[in-house]
Design goal:
Among the domains are: 40-179, 3-Layer(aba) Sandwich (Rossmann fold); 199-347, NAD(P)-binding Rossmann-like Domain (Rossmann fold). It is an alpha/beta fold. It has 14 helices and 11 strands. Helix 1 (4-19) packs parallel to helix 3, helix 4 (122-136) packs across helix 5 (155-172) and helix 6 (197-216) packs across helix 12. The chain has helices at 4-19, 26-37, 85-101, 122-136, 155-172, 197-216, 233-244, 267-277, 290-294, 333-341, 349-352, 355-369, 375-400, 404-423; strands at 41-50, 56-67, 73-80, 108-114, 145-149, 225-229, 248-253, 258-260, 300-303, 322-324, 345-347. It binds nicotinamide-adenine-dinucleotide (NAD). Residues 201, 229-235, 253-255, 290, 304-306, 326-328, 353, 356 line the site of nicotinamide-adenine-dinucleotide. The site of nicotinamide-adenine-dinucleotide has 20 residues, from helix 7.
Length: 426
């Protein structure tokens, strides 16, 4: 079976080879790299809840806290039947690199429960969410580990989790009752969530697109064509802001349908079509399959749906010159090599979709301060953060003549290693 954790370690070793020259004490450097191959803490347990039927059922749960050298652990919680220990571990490494790539003061973590949430009632889902918080106990908290939503976890689930955390703190009657709102991000607006969070990931990707356009000297934005796979939160907001910035979004798709309008489509109208008819296209002639969308002759392809969609099978057929990875892990390592050889530039997920975690960081800052910003204020802070991250990575990309992905990893892993050094952990 495919082991994503092995992929994450192989990736780290590859980056370490490139970074080694920057460190004089090789022994110390290798010690740091070895340390980064493992999570600092790994929690594994079984959560038992009473179902509506009165029967008891257990669910396997994980939390991988990879690295805390740069700040509290940060990363989502995934509810999915396909969750594995190795996947959670790999995702926690990637979170350490993502928070470092955009230079926000966090480490990396990830959590998960092996469950199909669609098979649970709302009451059962709430019990499971609360049980997860009891399982984590004081291993999470505003200055320790700040979880967030991921696949199938929602603002409502974060609200239950915050509430359970607060109850737990009160029961223990310790001084640990410290700002429970700042223990989880991705909360509903009514409960300490941040303005702008909903569109932040898609918009952050468009900020990256804008910087890329400057570097590549794209003059006429209206001639730059974009195809987007996935029209959920991330895909929709990417399409919306790309069009607003003057680009031509020609195709989008979701799990059930796709639309291709060579002269450019209107994301809001496309969204309305989907609400009214269940289909993205307004006529049969505009329909396109998901496979065909990936192979369109566009300037920019944006995978914004699932993991592992650009594979050894699909990579050779891609005609776009640039890929902006808005989904997490849409490109397999083997496909990445094919794209590199074919000269297709990939803006990696740890940069492109980091607008989400960056706005989670703003949410945490607002919770800690008890002072809340308007959407305009949040987005005005997001833009320079994304531009600075892009610039840091692009300069390494140009200097090292490597891929943008390797440049992003190089910047990120170096930041984590430097923090380990400064703390004297190696
Ligand atoms: P979402 O559930 O809102 O949307 C997912 C979209 O993908 C839906 O339109 C769905 O129909 C579509 N989809 C599913 N299967 C598909 C298929 N086989 N072909 C084409 N489309 C398909 O999820 P989201 O929040 O938009 O997340 C999308 C991706 O972005 C995920 O990889 C997620 O991990 C990543 N991401 C999300 C955020 C965020 O803030 N939401 C942040 C960082 C990364």
């Amino acid at each position: 079976m495919h082991n994503p954790y092995k992929d994450a370690v192989t990736q780290l070793e590859l980056v370490a080879k490139r970074l080694e020259f920057e460190y004089t004490d090789k022994k110390r450097f290798h010690k740091a790299v070895e340390l980064l191959k493992q999570p600092e803490q790994f929690h594994e347990g079984s959560l038992e809840i009473t179902l509506d039927s009165g029967k008891k059922q257990s669910f396997k749960a994980f939390r991988s806290q990879h690295n805390s050298a740069r700040g509290p652990y940060k990363g989502g919680i995934r509810f999915h039947p396909g969750v594995t220990k190795e996947e959670v571990q790999a995702l926690s490494l990637w979170m350490s690199w993502k928070t470092a790539a955009v230079n926000i003061p966090y480490g990396g973590a990830k959590g998960g429960i092996i469950v199909d949430p669609k098979k649970l009632s709302l009451a059962e889902l709430e019990k499971l969410s609360r049980a997860y918080v009891r399982f984590l106990g004081t291993t999470v908290g505003p200055w320790i580990d700040v979880p967030a939503p991921d696949v199938n976890t929602t603002p409502q689930i974060m609200a239950w989790m915050v509430d359970e955390y607060e109850l737990m703190m009160r029961e223990s009657n310790t001084a640990q009752l410290q700002n429970p709102l700042a223990s989880f991000t991705g909360k509903p607006l009514e409960l300490g969530g941040s303005q702008g969070r909903e569109e932040a990931t898609g918009l952050g990707g468009v900020y990256v697109l804008e910087e890329l356009a400057k570097k590549l000297g794209w003059k006429r934005k209206q001639d730059i064509t974009i195809a987007i796979q996935g029209f959920g939160n991330v895909g929709y907001w990417f399409a919306y802001h790309a069009k607003a910035a003057g680009y031509k979004v020609v195709a989008v798709s979701d799990s059930k349908s796709g639309v291709f309008v060579p002269n450019g489509l209107d994301p809001e109208q496309t969204h309305a079509n989907k609400q009214q008819t269940g289909k993205l296209a307004s006529s049969a002639s505009e329909q396109i399959s998901n496979e065909a969308l990936l192979e369109l002759d566009v300037d920019v392809l944006v995978p914004a749906a699932l993991e592992n969609v650009i594979t050894v099978e699909t990579a050779p057929k891609i005609k776009a010159k640039t890929i902006i990875e808005m989904a997490n892990g849409p490109t397999t390592p083997e496909a990445d090599e094919i794209l590199a050889v074919r000269g297709i530039r990939v803006i990696p997920d740890i940069l492109a979709n980091a607008g989400g975690v960056s706005t989670s960081y703003f949410e945490w800052v607002q919770n800690l301060a008890g002072y809340y910003w308007s959407k305009e204020e949040v987005l005005a802070k997001l833009q320079p953060l994304m531009i600075a991250a892009f610039e840091d990575i692009w300069s390494v990309y140009e200097q090292e003549k490597t891929t943008v992905r390797l440049a992003a990893y190089q910047v990120a892993v170096k930041r984590v290693i430097d923090a380990l050094y400064l703390r004297g952990r190696v």
